[in-house]
Amino acid sequence: MSSSNRPTPAKQKPKFSVAITTTGYKNLINNTLGDPERAKRFIASITSAVAVNPELQDCEAGTILAGALLGESLNLSPSPQLGQYYLVPFECKLKGPDGKTLWVLDENGNHVKDDKGKWLAETEKRAQFVLGYKGYIQLALKSGQYADLDVMTIKEGEYRGKDPATGKPRFQFVEDDNMRDELPVIGYMAYFE
Prior knowledge:
The protein has a two-stranded antiparallel sheet. The chain has a two-stranded antiparallel ribbon with strand order 3-6. Strands 4-5 form a two-stranded antiparallel sheet. By secondary structure, the chain is α+β, with helices and mostly antiparallel strands. The protein is about 35% helix and about 20% strand. It is built from seven helices and six strands; from the N terminus they run αααααββαβββαβ. Helix 2 packs across helix 3. Strand 4 and strand 5 form a beta hairpin.
């Protein structure tokens, strides 16, 4: 399919697993990170993160790299298991050089509509950097402004209301871990020092 705003059809971009092995991408990573060992570790970790997410594998490779470099600049891990940041795939409408949406056209040059009567736009999947809550914690601790930062569950019977003098919540935590594990969770508490 072609577009009225684009003289030539869109060229298929390489998948991330192919793009990351090209000389251009490797040079960009090495020049950006400066340290060859850091660059190798970065390539391995981001390739692994993309490999476990089929939706991410369909994203434009440059957007994956841009998001991953942002995470690397913050010294955060792309591993989804660590939850520091995520590369989230989004379907984005393509724009032409004039800034207008590129519409899908049929072989006769007519706009194509979906089954609900809306015009179809040309799209591509792009990865977006999204900071995870554990990333927020890491950045806060690295700032040097916090001695401790944590979240914990509040179990049934532990909340004792508010202190009438200060208005702060009061808790009496169950000390026996086995007994505490059996109690239902009624809420969560975050704290920092």
